[in-house]
C-alpha cells in the first residue's frame, strides 16, 4: 500500500544520549504505540535498548499481520528489544522521516540513528533472524540494556460475562461458557474478544462430541472417512478439518476446506467458508492465515 506523505521529521533534531558502557534495567514498555510526540522517547531509549519501529495501516491486512508477528517475537525477547508501532494513517510524516514509502515496513533505532530493516512481508523465520542480529549488533555498540515494564499500565478489567465464560471453561462447562459469550455478543455485537471465544468454545464442543481425546484410532477413522468422501459431501470434511485444526495442523484444515469452497456452491460453500473464517479468528493474525485468506479469496472468485 502506498502512502502520500509530506513534511518529513528530521530525526537529527532530537538529542541522542551517549550509549551506556554496560547494560542494566531500563524503565519502559516492551511494546507500545508510537506517536510524533513520543519520538524523542524512542530516540532516548535506543541509546540503551534497540528499538524496532513497525509501520502499519488499518487499510493493509499484511501490515496488521506483521504487527502481530512482531509482538509475539518481541515478547519472547523479554525486554532486549522495544517495539514501537506507528500508524501511517495518523503519522505519515514520521514514516517519511524513516524513508518508508509503503507498508508493511520496519526500521530500527540504534543510538538515535534509523536503520532500515525491510519493506514488504518477510517470512516469520527471517524476522526472528533479523531481531537476533539486531540484538548482536546493538551489543557491539554497548546497547545491551533490558527493559523493565513492571510499571506498565495494569490489564483492563475483564467484563463480567467474559469472566463468567472463562470460569466456565476452567471448569470444563462448555455449555455455560457458550451461553456467557453468546450473551456478551447479544449485548455488544462488536465484542471481538467474545466472538473469538465463542468460536473456540464451539470448536471444543464439536471435538467433545467426536470423543477422540487420546484415541488415535478414532482420529484415523475420522480422517479416513473424509479421504473416502467426495468433496461435495461436505460434512465429513468439516469434521476432519476440526480434528486437524485441534491437532495443531491448521494448514491441513485450511487446505481441505478451501478445496471444498472451490468445488461446491450454495449452503455447502457457505458452511466451509464460515468454518474457515472461524478458524482464522481463533488462530489470529499469522503468516499461515494470511496465505489461507488469499487462497480462500481465489477459491471464491
Automatic annotation (TrEMBL):
Q: Which GO BP annotation is one of this protein's?
A: response to stress
Q: Which residues form the Thioredoxin domain?
A: 12-136
Q: Which domain of life is it from?
A: Bacteria
| The protein's name | Thioredoxin
According to its UniProt entry, this protein's organism is Trueperella bernardiae
Amino acid at each position: 500500500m502506498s502512502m502520500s506523505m509530506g513534511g518529513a521529521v528530521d530525526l537529527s533534531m532530537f538529542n541522542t544520549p551517549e550509549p551506556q558502557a554496560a547494560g542494566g534495567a531500563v524503565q519502559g514498555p516492551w511494546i507500545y504505540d508510537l506517536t510524533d510526540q513520543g519520538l524523542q522517547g524512542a530516540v532516548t531509549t535506543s541509546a540503551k535498548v534497540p528499538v524496532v519501529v513497525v509501520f502499519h495501516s488499518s487499510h493493509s491486512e499484511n501490515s496488521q499481520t506483521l504487527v502481530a508477528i512482531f509482538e509475539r517475537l518481541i515478547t519472547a525477547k523479554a525486554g532486549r528489544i522495544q517495539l514501537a508501532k506507528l500508524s501511517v494513517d495518523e503519522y505519515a510524516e514520521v514514516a517519511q522521516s524513516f524513508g518508508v514509502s509503503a507498508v508493511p515496513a520496519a526500521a530500527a533505532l540504534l543510538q538515535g540513528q534509523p536503520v532500515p530493516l525491510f519493506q514488504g512481508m518477510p517470512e516469520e523465520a527471517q524476522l526472528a533472524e533479523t531481531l537476533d542480529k539486531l540484538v548482536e549488533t546493538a551489543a557491539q555498540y554497548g546497547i545491551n540494556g533490558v527493559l523493565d515494564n513492571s510499571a506498565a499500565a495494569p490489564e483492563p478489567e475483564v467484563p463480567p460475562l467474559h469472566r463468567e465464560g472463562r470460569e466456565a471453561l476452567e471448569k470444563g462447562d462448555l455449555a455455560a461458557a457458550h451461553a456467557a459469550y453468546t450473551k456478551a455478543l447479544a449485548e455488544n455485537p462488536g465484542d471481538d474478544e467474545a466472538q473469538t471465544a465463542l468460536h473456540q468454545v464451539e470448536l471444543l464442543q464439536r471435538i467433545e462430541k467426536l470423543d477422540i481425546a487420546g484415541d488415535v484410532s478414532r482420529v484415523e477413522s475420522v480422517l479416513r472417512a473424509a479421504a473416502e468422501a467426495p468433496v461435495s459431501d461436505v460434512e465429513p470434511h468439516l469434521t476432519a478439518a476440526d480434528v486437524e485444526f485441534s491437532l495443531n495442523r491448521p494448514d491441513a484444515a485450511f487446505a481441505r476446506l478451501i478445496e471444498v469452497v472451490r468445488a461446491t456452491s450454495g449452503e455447502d460453500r457457505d458452511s466451509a467458508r464460515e468454518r474457515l473464517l472461524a478458524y482464522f479468528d481463533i488462530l489470529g493474525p499469522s503468516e499461515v492465515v494470511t496465505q489461507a485468506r488469499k487462497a480462500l479469496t481465489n477459491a471464491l472468485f
